[in-house]
Specification:
374 residues; binds uridine-5'-diphosphate; seven-stranded parallel sheet; binds uridine-diphosphate-N-acetylglucosamine; 16 helices; alpha/beta
């Protein structure tokens, strides 16, 4: 019998970090041909992840241009996917999350009457929530990281093909974090980890463009200026909109290290060593709790309620004073810090990829039993 052809499609950094372990898991299955198609919605940041996980895509749409609009991304992905699907002839396409690549990948699979597996699912703000909803109505299989995610789909009357698997990002973390890790970015080896409070910062979301991002940058500046015991380490996203805000409001502040985006393994090991995290990233809210690091989320809302419930993630909003107050509490009040700094794993146990591959095999009749859920 011919092998089952499963094509993973992704294009941005976070999708890549969460899909690479799955591409490898699928490749290890004798009855599956694991194919990988990247849109390169992100170019350098995607390539960096591919390099860390040593994955060579079978197809590359190479769509990125600077300051790309949402419609440009979607239309270029759709056109490019036609050729990829015609050539690689997948039996099923896997997409991840809620980006424009995710939506376009699912839609072109639908146009080609190819089954769709949706890895990861959550509620999010503009524009991601619409992508998620649209993919939810197209998908055949749903790999939910948590029971909560599954319940959300049930509320939308999606009842078939749901599997709670855990989040593949925890699988990724297990392969990257090491106690004696040596950074290739020399500056990171020299940081005063025990002596000072290293705060890891990221910020990139479209919903924060404009006033919120300005407030965030000014808050970070104030925190660095007022607290001699901290060092802020901020790998800055390559988006020109983000870089502009950083240059205007944060660059030049004392105790702030503005660096280029880090390869995923460097990032994960830096997170494991830092004091706390301040971010608007979705992925960091899943990773930091697993490493026992408190997270302040610089957004108006979070789509990661599990980590908030577990006590390691707190929303601090996008108002300068609020951000500064909440950060300084964690910097100065050790009881408040200790309360948040414990490792929890609401997002997975590191076996999500195995469960997803099992579920696919089961769905295609290659395995008798429905896989155990997370
Ligand atoms: C996208 C996703 C968002 C995700 C984020 C992760 C959508 C709508 N948004 O947002 O959900 O959280 O990725 O980072 O899909 N750029 C480069 N090189 C790179 C990457 C980006 O130069 O390697 C620049 C380009 O100018 C690009 C801009 O960054 O136009 C923004 O990238 P884009 O993919 O449009 O949006 P993100 O804000 O990254
Ligand atoms: N990340 C990375 N290098 C960086 C910043 C982030 O490898 O310099 C990783 C991070 O550990 C997480 C993912 O990228 O796994 C999150 O991506 P991003 O914040 O771009 O997107 P989001 O999670 O908000 O969709």
């Amino acid at each position: 019998m011919d092998k089952l052809r499963i094509m993973s499609v992704f294009g941005t950094r976070p999708e890549a970090i969460k899909m690479c372990p799955l591409v490898k898991e699928l490749a290890s299955r004798p009855e599956i041909e694991s194919l990988c198609c990247v849109t390169a919605q992100h170019r350098q940041m995607l390539d960096s992840v591919l390099e860390v996980f040593d994955i060579k895509p079978d197809w590359d749409l190479d769509i990125m241009t600077p300051r790309q609009t949402l419609s440009t991304i979607t239309s270029k992905c759709l056109t490019g996917m036609d050729e990829a699907i015609d050539s690689l002839k997948p039996d099923m396409i896997l997409v991840h999350g809620d980006t424009s690549t995710t939506f376009a990948g699912a839609l072109s699979a639908f146009y080609h009457q190819v089954k769709v597996g949706h890895v990861y699912d959550k509620y999010s703000p503009f524009p991601e929530e619409m992508n998620r909803k649209l993919v939810s109505s197209i998908a055949d299989l749903y790999f939910c990281p948590t029971v909560n995610n599954k319940n959300n789909l049930l509320k939308e009357n999606i009842t078939d093909g749901l599997f709670v698997t855990g989040n593949t990002v925890i699988d990724a973390l297990k392969t990257t974090v090491r106690e004696n890790y040596r950074f290739s970015t020399e500056e990171l080896n020299r940081l005063p980890y025990g002596e000072k409070k290293i705060i890891l910062v990221t910020c990139h979301r479209r919903e924060n463009y404009g006033e919120p991002m300005k407030n965030i940058m000014l808050a970070l500046r104030q925190i660095a200026e007022q607290n001699r015991e901290v060092e802020l380490v901020y790998p800055v996203h390559l988006s020109p909109v983000v870089r502009e805000a950083v240059d205007k409001y944060l660059r030049g502040a004392p105790r702030v290290h503005l660096i280029d985006p880090l390869p995923a393994d460097e990032m994960h090991n830096l997170m494991a060593r830092c004091y706390m995290v301040m971010t608007d990233s979705g992925g960091l809210q899943e990773e930091a709790p697993a490493l026992g690091k408190p997270v302040l989320v610089m957004r108006r809302e979070t789509e990661r309620p599990e980590a908030v419930e577990a006590g390691t993630v707190k929303l601090c909003g996008v108002v300068q004073d609020d951000i500064v107050t909440m950060a300084e509490r964690l910097i100065r009040d050790s009881a408040a810090y200790t309360q948040m700094a414990h490792a929890v794993n609401p997002y997975g146990d590191g076996h999500a990829c195995r469960r997803i591959a099992d579920a696919i095999e089961w769905r295609f009749g290659l395995r008798a039993d429905r896989p155990e859920e997370f």
